[in-house]
């Protein structure tokens, strides 16, 4: 089975490899079609879907996977959360899944609300570079108890549901 993940980010590829059994996973750098800092569940989910479709179309693949991280609020709360969505498609069926949602610390949420992107804010706060290709915000917010790969794997696994469970047929 050949799977393409719509990103050149090694963390997203690792998460996809973990979610798929016995698959060859390739990275295809494709656009998300959404803003650099997706805001809200709808935009974040759309970015994942766009990446999945573009990844599938990029070559001779059985599945395309799109993963998108964003920030969103939940109804009834003023807090801002890191959210992650995944989409998996075979060209006919598309599955969607979300990963864990982690509340952003106020000082980080304030900067994101002011228009900064979460990745560069995290790099600044942590004094590092490319946190999105390492532990990610999820790893930083959980004290290393959950890596970005772990969080994204759960989203991809959830998006695989229509392909692995008879309940969707």
TrEMBL record:
<comment type="similarity">
    <text>Belongs to the YjjX NTPase family.</text>
</comment>
<comment type="subunit">
    <text>Homodimer.</text>
</comment>
<dbReference type="InterPro" id="IPR029001">
    <property type="entry name" value="ITPase-like_fam"/>
</dbReference>
<feature type="compositionally biased region" description="Polar residues">
    <location>
        <begin position="26"/>
        <end position="38"/>
    </location>
</feature>
<dbReference type="InterPro" id="IPR026533">
    <property type="entry name" value="NTPase/PRRC1"/>
</dbReference>
<dbReference type="GO" id="GO:0103023">
    <property type="term" value="F:ITPase activity"/>
</dbReference>
<dbReference type="GO" id="GO:0046872">
    <property type="term" value="F:metal ion binding"/>
</dbReference>
<keyword id="KW-0460">Magnesium</keyword>
<keyword id="KW-0464">Manganese</keyword>
<feature type="region of interest" description="Disordered">
    <location>
        <begin position="23"/>
        <end position="46"/>
    </location>
</feature>
<keyword id="KW-0479">Metal-binding</keyword>
<feature type="domain" description="Non-canonical purine NTP phosphatase/PRRC1">
    <location>
        <begin position="6"/>
        <end position="164"/>
    </location>
</feature>
<keyword id="KW-0546">Nucleotide metabolism</keyword>
<dbReference type="GO" id="GO:0009117">
    <property type="term" value="P:nucleotide metabolic process"/>
</dbReference>
<dbReference type="InterPro" id="IPR050299">
    <property type="entry name" value="YjjX_NTPase"/>
</dbReference>
<dbReference type="InterPro" id="IPR002786">
    <property type="entry name" value="Non_canon_purine_NTPase"/>
</dbReference>
<protein>
    <recommendedName>
        <fullName>Probable inosine/xanthosine triphosphatase</fullName>
        <ecNumber>3.6.1.73</ecNumber>
    </recommendedName>
</protein>
<keyword id="KW-0378">Hydrolase</keyword>
<keyword id="KW-0547">Nucleotide-binding</keyword>
<dbReference type="GO" id="GO:0000166">
    <property type="term" value="F:nucleotide binding"/>
</dbReference>
<comment type="function">
    <text>Phosphatase that hydrolyzes non-canonical purine nucleotides such as XTP and ITP to their respective diphosphate derivatives. Probably excludes non-canonical purines from DNA/RNA precursor pool, thus preventing their incorporation into DNA/RNA and avoiding chromosomal lesions.</text>
</comment>
<dbReference type="Pfam" id="PF01931">
    <property type="entry name" value="NTPase_I-T"/>
</dbReference>
